[in-house]
Design goal:
There is one protein chain. The chain is an alpha/beta fold. It has twelve helices and 20 strands. Strand 6, helix 4 (115-123) and strand 7 form a beta-alpha-beta unit. The two termini are 29 Å apart. The mean pLDDT is 94.
Length: 418
């Protein structure tokens, strides 16, 4: 698994209004050289013929021939050469390319800039990288202002071999974390401090953490299993997570999933773990269960309010949190959502070291429990304990993530690419 190919469009990615901008083209050339270095195959997918016209009409020539002379590894699929190639933006167009190259869909990303590009990527269920170095043409996709930023994204986030440090996949309990969290252990300290700053204050490298999360979900194919995405809210009364909402919305739209920012509502403040320690108060699952409920008629992609509850049997919700310690937040979310009949996949950026996750028995079994209204539960029955070390499935994930984090901060073109 991992990235094997990148599908590119022409308009406003390589050419602008049919002409070459020398400065941008030089950067695109570096991107092609970088892809060759990393053994990632670039593919042009086009509906039409593109020509380059010089000052002298006799200099007019086919753009594809020009590109392939410079980049022999470039593969071109164009309907003007072969009308059996399905047209963009149909799902069949990218499927044709992927099948022809012997790839899987989640081994490819799509780089383009227009509405047609966006529709092609979405129809093909591909991660859409939106080129804006010429102009903004669509609001969909993850934005990149230069070919260099695309190369950095690929180099530091798309070529990882270790997507998850923790995986729990036991009966109906599914949980994933990128890496361990600790600000005390040297090997975890630097990236953990940045993740905490990003999660709590928005001052860390938020783009890195959300990029790592999105690529892990994509390359491990979890995105294909879900219907809805929602964040877990903070400790204060309210909904959503403003640190990750934009990228989670973008991720959802890329794959025709629905982002429901207000699915989980915090109707009263929950006590922070740090505050509880300072006061000598023991907190448990009830600190979450008795301060949240589900919104029966939430909002779809920040736009349209549902007229009927969206959660039901056969649907799967991806719940995203930043740092998981004992799992009180995520298991509470799981209990509420499962009581509607829907399934849940839980994800966090990081998992606090040496702390187990304790599940709870189904909340729907509690007399009078209603997932859509505030509850005042006195006792919750505990379920299975998921030991930290037992479900630490990849010790290399933290080391790799730490290295990629440092690379992300100081990334430049590899030697030999100039």
């Amino acid at each position: 698994m991992g990235l094997k190919g990148i599908i590119l469009s022409i308009e406003d990615t390589i050419l602008n209004k049919g002409t070459i901008n020398t400065d941008v083209y030089n950067e695109v050339s570096k991107l092609f050289s970088y892809l060759k270095l990393r053994r990632i195959t670039p593919v042009i997918l086009s509906n039409q013929k593109w020509t380059l016209t010089g000052k002298d009409p006799s200099q007019t020539r086919c753009l594809f021939e020009y590109l392939q002379e410079s980049f022999p590894e470039l593969v071109i699929f164009s309907r003007h050469r072969d009308n059996s190639i399905p047209a963009k933006p149909t799902a069949e167009s990218t499927k044709y390319v992927i099948d022809s190259m012997g790839w899987k869909a989640n081994e490819v990303v799509y780089l383009g800039s227009t509405d047609t590009d966006m529709k092609t990527a979405v129809n093909g269920n591909l991660l859409f990288l939106r080129a804006t170095w010429f102009q903004h043409r669509t609001d969909y996709g993850f934005e990149f202002i230069s070919p260099k930023e695309v190369a950095r994204f690929i180099d530091t986030l798309c070529l990882r071999e270790h997507y998850w440090s923790h995986i729990i996949n036991s009966n109906d309990f599914r949980y994933y974390a990128l890496a361990p969290f600790s600000t005390m252990k040297v090997e975890f300290k630097r990236y953990s401090e940045d993740a905490r700053a990003a999660a709590k204050y928005g001052s860390g490298t938020v783009d890195f953490w959300l990029g790592a999360l999105v690529t892990s979900l994509y390359f491990s194919n979890i995105h294909a299993e879900i219907d809805y995405v929602c964040p877990y809210p903070g400790h204060k009364t309210g909904v959503d997570n403003d640190k990750m909402s934009a990228d989670l919305l973008t991720f959802s739209k890329c794959f025709r999933k629905t982002y429901i920012h207000d699915l989980i509502q915090r109707y009263s403040d929950a006590m922070k773990s740090q505050t509880a320690r300072q006061r000598g108060v023991a907190i448990d699952h009830l600190n979450q269960i008795n301060t949240i409920h589900l919104n029966k008629y939430p909002t779809r992609n920040y736009r349209t309010k549902y007229k009927a509850p969206p959660l039901s049997r056969g649907k799967t919700v991806l719940v995203v949190d930043d740092i998981c310690t004992k799992g009180y937040s995520l298991t509470a979310a799981k209990g509420f959502i499962e009581s509607t009949g829907a399934k849940v996949i839980l994800v966090s950026w990081l998992k606090t070291i040496n702390t187990d996750i304790v599940d709870i028995l189904p909340l729907r079994n509690i007399k009078g429990f209603n997932p859509y209204t505030p509850n005042n539960i006195g006792v919750v029955q505990l379920g299975k304990t998921y030991g930290y070390h037992k479900y630490l499935v990849d010790d290399n994930a933290s080391e790799e993530l730490g290295e990629q984090f440092e690379e992300y901060l100081s990334w430049n073109w590899p030697k030999g690419i100039d």
